[in-house]
Amino acid sequence: MLCNTKNTSYFMNMKKTKKSVTPKQITLIVIGSLSLVLGGIGILLPVLPTTPFVLVAAGCFSGSSPRLAQKLEESKLFGSYLRHWRTNEGVPIKTKIRAIIWLWLGLIVSSFLVRNTVVIIILGVIGIIVTLHLVLIKTKREESYEIFTSTRIDS
Fold it and tell me: Domain map of the chain by residue range?
């Protein structure tokens, strides 16, 4: 006989050790994915913040799927948001300037498309608040030796 009880119990134990996905993990993955989509939309739409949604996604993924959390941290698109937040080193000035320019370009285009005074006022207030927030975020400073080493002439 090919299958004895000893071999059968081995395969049954093997099935038990295989990790199954829990409803909690599924829920966290879905919430993290939705947050990541909203964060991606926030890159394009100035009135939708990106960083809070990326942070929620990172928290959800770290609690449900280490593989997804690692992919998010290594992502070219979202990885910098997490690094700046985690290290508390600040946001580079170029990133701040780019964000403010895109914010106001998006608000101006939206204002021309909507042509509703109340909505334009609301967009203006949101633009001012978001601009203030971006200006008040800690700015990452360049080290002086980095500037000098890039311009140094070796003899």
Answer: 1-88, 90-155
